[in-house]
Fold Zinc/iron permease.
Amino acid sequence: MTGVEFSEVDCFSADGPTDAFALQLRTGGLFVILVASAAGACLALLSRDNHLPEVFILGQAFAAGVVLATGFVHVLPDAHAALSNPCLEFSTDYPWAFTLAAFAAILTLAAEVAIAAILRAGLTPRGLDVEHTAPEDYDKEHAWAQATIMSYTLEAGIIFHSIFIGIGYGASTDLAVIRPLTGFEGLALGSSFVAAGYNRLKYALMAGAFILTTPLGVAIGLGISSSFNPNSKAALSSEGAFNSISAGILIHTALVGLLHPLFTVGQGNPPLKGWLMALAMLFALAGCGAMAIIAIWA
């Protein structure tokens, strides 16, 4: 909403009650989102259980592109729109969203470095004795620890964004806010869970937290739709801040946690060579492109 005159924006009126058709559509959409999220989260598990390493590698590359574009194309513009809204009544010319995202990316890296340092200091994964362990075994355990850390940061970033997507979908009277992101995001999360080597129970718990987040937001949005004011200071500031933080986490995770380990030798994965390297690059671009295309309607 940058460049919009303050007098043209209604900062005090709620959207008001939605009509019956819109309400029915959103209620049905809640279940569609639930199914799409679950399907995306389960695809990576199927590739692992059916021993399809090439398929999983290509899925990882596609998921990395999805996460990167989600941060740049979907989350960050939403955050900028919220924090540049004149209803906040403070400077809307400064790029607050981009600044917060940059700080969030650096702080995410700092948190990961700190956790890795703790692991190396003695709290090593799976009780590994570093001093009496072969270097190659320690490298594998270190890669496992890094993959676990990355899966948690990725889930945090997606959940931050998903809750606001759900609230906006449930509360808004504009049907155009329907966003088919959850299936792709579920695929990205599932790939990170497989890379971390989660057993079925932990995989289900982590995936369940993501699967339920957006529908929970939709339910909250439906409940407050009659009084929800998306242009209130509280709504704009909270949405903008959390989406900015989410964008920083997602961009960092896509580049450092997903793409770099996938294409770099010595990161716990076998080096990609020949056609598989080229195809993985194409899949990463395809994931990015898919989310960019969705942004036309979302």
